[in-house]
Design goal:
heterodimer, A: 318 residues, alpha/beta, eight-stranded mixed sheet, 16% strand, globular, B: 321 residues, two-stranded antiparallel ribbon, 45% helix
Chain lengths: 318, 321
Amino acid sequence: MAGELPFEKPLVELQDKIKELRRFTEEKGIDFSDEVQRLEQKAKDLAQQIYGNLTPWQRVQLARHPERPTTLDYIQLLFTDFIEVHGDRLFGDDHSIVGGIAKFDGHPVTVVGHQTGKDTKDNIKRNFGMAHPEGYRKALRIMQQADKFGRPIICFINTKGAYPGKSAEERGQSEAIARNLREMATFRVPIICIVIGEGGSGGALAISVGNRILMLENSWYSVIAPESAAAILWRDASLGMRAAESMKITAPDLFELGVIDGVIPEPFGGAHRDLIAQASAVKTVIAEQLEQLGHLTPDELIQDRYEKFKNIGKYATL
Amino acid sequence: MRKVGAPVLKDLFGKKRKFATVPSETLARVPASADMAKEAGTKEKEVPEGLMNKCPHCGTIHYSKDLEKNLRVCKGCQYHYAMSAPERLQSLLDEGVLTEEFDTNLITANPLDFPGYLEKIEQDKANTDLNEAVITGEGILGGNRIVIGVMDSRFRMASMGSVVGEKITRAIEQAIDRRLPFILFSASGGARMQEGILSLMQMAKTSAALSRLDRERLLFISVMTNPTYGGVSASFSSLGDYNIAEPGAMIGFAGRRVIEQTIRQELPKDFQTAEFLLKNGQLDMVVHRKDMRTTLSKLVEMHTSREGVEAWQESSPLKSH
């Protein structure tokens, strides 16, 4: 099992032991089947114990798993006839955002998402999934086109955050994000947003003003990355775990807070363990939501989105 | 409260000593101590002022009364000191106060049960006499009715949580109902961490409200004051029909320190100042505080009365066709 996380180690060790016993049985002809059976039950219980009770920090680690499926993985499995388009028509083509048109169950839709790399070289091209203003402007251009042609928009969110750098600031990172927030509120088509990995702050929100927001079970979405929160609150970035526990950033937390509309379950051990099963679960949810939103008129869709965000926030009155 | 005179003398002596002996150890620590001095400077500003005040920028010493008369702008270097929300309203509005204040009954809760959060809110309430970090309401500017919001950096660095987001959203909705222009003075460290994801969502909420104001063809002027960062910069503050800033105001998405630490990039000296933003096409204008009232009044006047457009249409030579 490649890329196991620290908290999975006991399980991996147990599975290795089972493998070894099996090999022994085959090679030496000594019967360990009772022992194997016993250990397999133990492994099953252990897996249940680990994956059934994931802590927020463990979920953060799963969300960042190097083999975690990316936007392009889902696009390939959920849609047909995907045609990728490029560029913001103003400055450049930001590879940390991908988008285009595709068919979902035979119907044209627009797809936009953050794209992270699969290896170092790819990650450099994708800027580790952290977009510059031109990325958000490209996303906006693609979504405006969807609005023009009446295509539903499906957004996949997976970013550590908007790129914090000189070039981004010079070209108006704040303005690019802000404009997307305002414009997404005006679109006359259904917008479905799915957080598939990391939902880092404004960089995530910039393509997340949807009628429906859903999160994969082991993804996170927060006002600030846990390490950065720890750096500010306790002046120690290594306390990311503590921040993750106290800031309510997991999918179940956000569902409880009324921020998201649903949690999409993941296969045991995370989305990367079974991409096909995961994609199928995501597909079912998109189909359901599109069906529901299909009953709303364009004006009702705008109103629905407005009310959704208007209702988020907790305060008291005197 | 510290005496104002004492640190000045100490600073002078401190400097002299530095020139006398420079052990290599101290040299190595220079960046750190420079940073610390900067932090100490910020703290000094938070100290309630007495009779006199030293400009953190050029060191000019002002009588506090004179500084107030000069709209809290340093006579030496034109440094714009922070203004409280009531001071700002006083400096702008015809009557010096709002004709109607909105939503004074909204108060902060602790949705994430964040330890110590409400205690900090209570402290800031006591220190500022405000309910939260923004005042909203209707007022009169240069004879015209406007809806205005002013953020106050004394209150939790004017970070945006549920109450700030809700008050700004409701103010925008009031501007729409009353068909009035909306002006917002921002100053903010960004989204309020203690309310987590709920703070982030206020960015979407306020921006959605502005999309309605936009559709109704009503004017929105955003005035950014020092500092305007993060979630506030990346939502309503950047969405003005006119984006204005005060001279020297620091404005940006990610702070200088964050950028230096994560990307290790060298940044220009004027990085993220209002002037830097103007140069990069992010602002319409940088307006000195003494000219703010006139500038805003003029802008409002040119947009409020439909008469202007109608009168032009009446007299237009095109009309005869």
